[in-house]
Amino acid sequence: MIEVQRLASVAVSQVLAGRSLSQILSSLWQRHPDLSPQQRAAIQDLSCGTLRFYGQLQTLLEYLLEKPLRDQRLRALLLVGLYQLQHTRAAPHAVVDHAVKTAAVLNQRPAKGLVNAILRNFLRKRETLQALAAAGEVGRYSHPQWWIDKLKAQYPRDYEAILTAANLHPPMTLRVNRRATTKQEYQTLLINYGIKAEDLGGDALLLKRAVAVMKLPGFAEGLVSVQDAAAQLAAPLLDVQPGMRVLDACAAPGGKTTHILELSDAQLTALDNDAGRLRLVEENLQRLKLEACVVCGDAENPQDWWDGRPFQRILADVPCSASGVVRRHPDIKWLRHETDIGQFAATQRRILDALWQCLDRGGKLLYVTCSVFAEENGRQVEAFLERHRDTELLPLSMQSQLLPDSQHDGFFYALLRKT
Question: Is the pLDDT of residue 109 over 80?
């Protein structure tokens, strides 16, 4: 546990210094190849949990400290310890004892007494401190104040539910590959392995409890993929018919690319500007025994990769704030700035305008984000319709804006037809 606490503290301190958690963890696994799968899972759980409730934990720590801490590693260790005491079932005495020993490992021997005093003081005054933290919105909702204010303005009735859902553990949803099996057959296979799942319709199965991906029966053989239920709506909405030329314009890591191909025999081009992430697309295609033309290119500059032949369908799953998937990536809440939203919106506008010229007359473009902010979603589409008069906004069989809940993440969909 000492090594787990130490490395989780390192990860948290680096996120708070501005780095992505996924990049940090990848680097940690490379530097510490002897970590067991259980240790890696524990480090990731502590890191994600601490960042998920960072607003509350930081508020608690401020009440517990007599003066600010200069050493960020020690501050991160205290945040991890507070997370364990507040949000896990770990034995309190063990958490405190390990944190004191971890402080010594971090070359903070003089701070051992401080760590012991802070964590034990929290245990003595827990109820009072919890009430103090909940008095402010950052401590209550564990989101930045600008994020809370934006959701309150845009969703006056739903903002509390959105913030609460964003702090839950994300659901684990499977997508059954209908080219390889049926949903009923795969549900039976899950039952045989002692895995319980709920049918969400379409190709989606929601696991009652998350399991390691490689423990899913038939995963390596391509029977199933892991994909959020809301993300699984993209391929059916695009309505691809056999033989159509289809572009997945921001394809990595390939979940929607492969779903489109599972549903229809299309001539699909998977485009992304990140060569490293395109390898994930290729790996998914290979595992699922599907074929696509994989191209490294920028969706904003079709002249660099487009052959001039129009596409009948385009999926534009554009870069966004990812505000709808923060429970999967809790570091996003603390890495984003309010000014980032306008920058994402500008990028989305350029991508939409560029891709529109690649779409055939009568063709359909599906605009997708995993955001809940209006600037990236409804307002973006309204502005596009004003700029492009040869556009029809098609009705959907659902709401365009999906908010995160117990079954899926937050997504936005708009289906546009070139008239």
Answer: no
DSSP characters over 225-274: EE--TTGGGHHHHH-PPTT-EEEETT-TT-HHHHHHHHH---EEEEEES-
Domain 2-141 CATH (choose: 1.10.940.10, 3.30.450.20, 1.10.10.10, 1.10.260.40):
1.10.940.10
Answer CATH for 231-418 from 3.40.50.720, 3.30.450.20, 3.40.50.150, 3.50.50.60: 3.40.50.150
Report the pLDDT averaged over residues 26-54: 95
Q: How confident is the model at residue 69 (pLDDT cuts 50, 70, 90)?
A: confident
391/325 Cα distance (integer angstroms) = 29
Q: E-assigned strands of 32-89?
A: none
Digit-coded pLDDT (tens) for 50-61: 999 999 999 999
The chain-wide mean pLDDT, for the chain, equals 96
Q: Is a pLDDT exceeding 90 seen at residue 219?
A: yes
**Side-chain-side CA neighbours of residue 31 (13 Å):** 9
> What is the amino acid identity at position 268?
L
* 52 close to 167: Cβ distance less than 8 angstroms: yes
Q: What is the pLDDT, as a whole number, of residue 164?
A: 96
- Dihedral class, residue 289 (left if φ above 0, else alpha if ψ from -120 to 50, else beta): left
d(CA 374, CA 93): 46
What is the per-residue pLDDT across 174-184, written as a single tens digit (0 to 9) for each? Answer: 999 999 999 99
Residue 290 has what DSSP assignment? Answer: -
pLDDT of amino acid 108: 58
**Which of 48, 250, 320, 370 is labelled catalytic?**
370
Could you tell me the two tokens for 368? 């997708």
The verdict on pTM exceeding 0.85 is yes
What fold, for 173-226?
Answer: Alpha-Beta Plaits (3.30.70)
Strands (E), 70-116: none
- How many other C-beta atoms are found inside a 10 Å radius of the C-beta of residue 370? 26
> Is 48 annotated as catalytic?
no
